[in-house]
Amino acid sequence: MNNKTKKLTEGAAVIAILGVFLLIDRQFVGLFSSYVLFLLPIPMMFFSAKYGFMDSLPVLFGMFVVAFLFSSLATFIYVVGECIIGLAYGSLVYQKRSSKVTLIITMILSVLTEIICIILLAKFFGYDIAKEIDSIQSMTVSIGNYLDNNSNSTSLSNTISLFENLGVFKTIFYITTVLAGVLDAILTHVIGRTVLRRFKIDVPKGDTILTHYPPKWAGYITLIGFVIYFYALKKPFSNELLEMSMQFIGAACMIYLLGYGIVCVYVYLARYVGKTNPILMWILTIVLISFFALFTVLLGFIYITTNIHKKMVTKE
């Protein structure tokens, strides 16, 4: 089989795999795709990693057509985003880009896909995300006030004040949306690398936490985004779309700094304490995020913008 025929055959097979997946998903009323969304980029990733960006565009268009014919509107929007992620990931592998660059770009595209899909679906179905969140928060505060009037609990009053003043539900919504995109990208990255290796496609070697170090400018930019995030919560913008965009970006910046704060702790323990227990690290991560989030954010900023990483790794 010559290369052109092989390319056409594999392209048709990739499109057929997506079509079968969407038909099965339709029988489950969309529940199947909602649980395994991170698998959707894999077929496109395989083809683009093997043949490159330009040769993959006709296959991408074919996937869009199949998704339009065999899926609902909500699934179609997500399939378009995930196929683009697969195209980008595979093209970066084809170009022999580093694993770090590939993962970061995948994360950015995945978070953007989550945000765009939420906004498009909200506009199409005619509901206001901000007003829905505000109504949930108002209802929670009303229930809390009712319970507070029937009890003398100081902690309950403080909790109600927190919900009322800091826009906790907005924070939860933005952070979970960004985290969903990040986790989706990580799962796609891990599974995609495994699949590509099984098909004997060269995949760049991944970096470990000890050897990976982010650029210092990223620390300053994410700190600015983190400050804008709290400013947008305290003093909302007149433009709703601008406000939501700023809060999404700020939430992403906060998660970025949180992540590197946890990495700093992990590197310190690995370097000075020795072998770390995975269960202990999970517990420590939960404690840092739950009770020392601001401290962890500042630690992440210090870790990125100073030479603390180099000193910990190279210390004899």
Which key phrases capture this entry?
2 domains; globular; 316 residues; mainly alpha; single chain
What's the β-strand tally? Answer: 0
Distance between the termini: 57 Å
Mean pLDDT: 78
- Ranges where pLDDT stays below 50 over 5 or more residues in a row are none
Number of domains: 2
Mind telling me which CATH architecture of the largest domain this is?
Orthogonal Bundle
Helix content: over 70%
CATH third-tier fold name of the largest domain: Arp2/3 complex 21 kDa subunit ARPC3
Gist of the model:
The protein is mainly alpha-helical and about 325 residues long. It has helices spanning about 5-25, 30-35, 40-50, 55-70, 75-95, 100-125, 130-150, 155-165, 170-200, 215-235, 240-275, 280-290, 295-305, 310-315.
Question: Can you walk me through this structure?
Answer:
The chain is mainly alpha-helical and 316 residues long. It folds into 2 domains: 1-128 and 174-207, Arp2/3 complex 21 kDa subunit ARPC3; 208-316, no CATH class. It is 82% helix and 0% strand. It has helices at residues 3-27, 31-35, 41-51, 53-70, 73-94, 99-125, 129-149, 154-165, 168-198, 216-234, 240-273, 278-291, 293-305, 308-314. The longest helix has 34 residues, at 240-273. The chain is globular, with a radius of gyration of 23 Å.
How do the strands and helices of this protein lay out in sequence?
Layout: H1 3-27, H2 31-35, H3 41-51, H4 53-70, H5 73-94, H6 99-125, H7 129-149, H8 154-165, H9 168-198, H10 216-234, H11 240-273, H12 278-291, H13 293-305, H14 308-314
